[in-house]
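User: I'm writing a tutorial on reading structure tokens. Could you give me a worked example: one chain, its sequence, then its tokens, then a sentence or two explaining what the tokens reveal?
Assistant: Sure. Here is the example chain.
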Amino acid sequence: MNHASRLLAIAATLAAPVVFALALRADGPQWPQFRGPQSNPVSQGSLPDTWSKTENVEWTAEIPGLGWSSPIVSGGKIFVTAAVSEGDSKKPQVGTEYSNEYVAELMKQGLPEKEVEARVVARDFELPGEVMLHYFLYCLDLQSGKLLWKQEYHSGRPPVGRHRKNSFTSETPVTDGKLVYVYATSLGLYAYDMTGRQVWKTPLDPYPVYGDFGTGASPALAGGRLVVVSDNEKHQFIAAFDTKTGKQLWRTDRDLAPRPGARRTAWSTPYVWTTPGRTEVVTIGPGFAVSYDLAGKELWRLAGMSTSPIPSPYAYGGLLLVNGGKGGGIFGVKPGASGDVSAKAGDALNEHVAWRQDRAGTYLATQVAYDGAFYTLTENGILSRSDAKTGAVTWRARIEGGVSFTSSPWAYDGKVFCLNEEGKTFVIAAGDEYRLLGVNDLDEMALATPALVGDRLLLRTQGRLYSIRQEP
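And here are its predicted structure tokens:
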């Protein structure tokens, strides 16, 4: 990457139809993937709405290493990943002052381009040659937080770098209750049984991501298929692997960009959408949302996504909610779409799109849908409520004292919860009027979206995992 491209990369930044009832099975409540069973973190369980570092805390567990993957749960066991560095590693960054502001500050000083690049990379990026890592999958007991086992699934220098806002293990694992599947975008796929035995591993080729910002899209399960998406600067693709063997079943190349020469990296997790007519895999990539059948054939595409989207799609109230990322739109898509269903801003809606909000997409967090509405959170603390059937905005407000949000909001008990990067959770009334009800502070950096498991809230901070549960 030349100097000009590097500076442009630095100016960009990194960083988720039914109200979800508890996913209860014979072996207890489940939270099998990123953002939960319905990819919409909502619960009808009895969970606390107030907590601190001591109040309503059932247990805490230290998680060695750095990782912004979310915890998942199956069979009374919690699974979470992290990477442990040999020696010092760059500390995570809190706040909305990203590299682009730093670039502007240095350029005002009249520094040469090479000097600006060197300073910003030294401050904000961790490159492969700078660190040796040990990648771990941890398994903890849901009841006690005790470490049951850990397995190192890779060690060595990372194949791609990261912005200090990111981690080397930001992809959340997924489980079918039999095996746990770990996706390391530039390394490979790894499957473990519930006792920690590695069943298979499948190496994947590393590809460059835009500006060395790192990776983050999590895998999804579609029957016996493990589906991954890799939107990178060299070879974008979606692929499915056999869950029993790790063998690749199919791979479909993607050529997504909003315009020629634009960046091609994205961090959006795919969503498996089952409707009365079919099951499809919905993805959000640079410039377009694209849906595929279970054999990897494209079904439809929708323009209006940002250049580097991060939020993930999911279904609610019979519609697919598509958040195109910062600068993109938010759309309600009807089942059964086919072909190109795009329409320019201001044009009449076509038969496949129920509504749209132009340029309403968010940078990092995926919106949460709850009680007939969806709540959209920006990285700087603007929360809005919209009608899920029409897309009409009910209200928009700034969360008092709440800046720097990466984690997706979640909801239960008539409330919406927004966790900021300083570990403060802002509790907001769900309904037609904005009301801040309280703030719960864990006083530690937090970027991961939590898990809602029965009557427990599993909330990950930089160094710990909290089980938050109503005290007797």
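What the tokens reveal: The mean pLDDT is 92. The longest helix spans residues 113-124.
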